Automatic annotation (TrEMBL):
The keyword Transmembrane applies. It is a multi-pass membrane protein. It is found in: Membrane. One of its GO terms (cellular component) is membrane. The lineage of its organism: Bacteria, Bacillati, Bacillota, Bacilli, Bacillales. Residues 98-251 form the Inositolphosphotransferase Aur1/Ipt1 domain. CDD domains: PAP2_Aur1_like. This is Inositol phosphorylceramide synthase. SUPFAM superfamilies: Acid phosphatase/Vanadium-dependent haloperoxidase. The chain crosses the membrane at residues 6-26, 38-60, 106-126, 133-154, 216-238. The keyword Transmembrane helix applies. Keywords: Membrane, Transmembrane, Transmembrane helix. Coiled coil: none annotated. Gene3D superfamilies: Phosphatidic acid phosphatase type 2/haloperoxidase.
């Protein structure tokens, strides 16, 4: 049995890592973080709406798998990818193979990747950097909206499933991966790589944060996640290229929308404030 015996264990590990990263990044106790986090969503309906939108789009990823089954679209472009790339993933996996590396990359792929999104939201909300919070929300929405049509009409099965000399190494750490984790990620939902796109997106947005630890951590994590998708035998090189392009585009688009929204809110606030000040002056005269 591996260290991840079920999704329950994955959830426990994820919660522990989230707490650790938040404490390290914010240098305060977790209770204070939770209180401020809850207050930010109770007192600000706009924040809550953005969070709900993100949760809904993540849930749509699960619905996509059900729609895919009903479509019964049998095409698979994995062989085309294989002909283009050759033995790239096989060579990476065999060259770097090591038991400790397998545990480390599996942990990053399953646990750290998820915590990146949760902790990013926690940091931006705690530090009241709502502009980055909105940028991240928009970027996640854009990522899934762009990726869904590819998963439905451009199916590409994973490398280990297509090339016999490539193994799904994550089985060594998470034996029930196919039975439990597959409920959230289809075996033919390869292009573009969401692990690549979302980790790159979070790194790009974090680059604008004043939190130095989080800037470096997300950047390093993006590199590790990209290496992991090859080493574990999951994604093609072309998947990474598509995910990289989508990640950069989503981050830039999300930042642009958030910046415009912030500017609009400031102008609207100024228009409300100026008349009220003038009215106060007239009354005093």
């Amino acid at each position: 049995m591996g260290p991840f015996d079920s999704m329950t264990h994955v959830s426990i590990y994820t919660a522990i890592i989230v707490i650790i990263l938040l404490v390290v990044a914010l240098r305060t106790n977790p209770i204070t973080i939770v209180i401020k986090f809850v207050q930010a969503f109770i007192s600000n309906g706009k924040n809550l709406l953005h969070l709900i939108a993100v949760l809904l789009i993540l849930y749509m990823n699960k619905l996509e798998l059900q729609v895919e089954q009903k479509l019964n679209f049998t095409a698979d472009f994995a062989q085309t990818f294989s002909q283009i790339e050759g033995k790239f993933v096989e060579n990476v996996q065999h060259f770097f193979y090591n038991d400790l590396l397998t545990y480390f990359t599996s942990f990053y792929y399953v646990i750290i990747f998820t915590t990146l999104m949760i902790v990013s939201i926690g940091i931006y909300i705690y530090q009241k950097n709502y502009q980055l919070f909105y940028a991240l929300c928009y970027a996640i929405l854009i990522t899934y909206i762009v990726a869904m049509p590819f998963y439905l009409f451009f199916p590409v099965t994973e490398v280990w499933y297509t090339q016999p000399k490539v193994d799904l190494l994550i089985h060594n750490v998470f034996p029930t991966f196919e039975q439990e984790y597959r409920l959230m990620s289809g075996i033919d939902n390869c292009f573009p790589s969401l692990h690549t796109s979302l980790s790159v997106t979070m790194a790009f947005i974090a680059a604008r944060s004043e939190n130095r630890f989080w800037r470096y951590f997300t950047a390093i994590s993006a590199v590790i996640v990209i290496f992991s998708i090859f080493y574990l035998g999951i994604h093609w090189f072309l998947d990474m290229c598509g995910g990289l392009a989508l990640g950069i585009f989503a981050a830039k688009a999300g930042q642009y929308i958030a910046d415009r929204q912030t500017t609009k809110d400031k102008k609207l606030g100024a228009r409300v404030t100026v008349p009220s000040q003038s009215k106060t002056q007239n009354l005093s005269e």
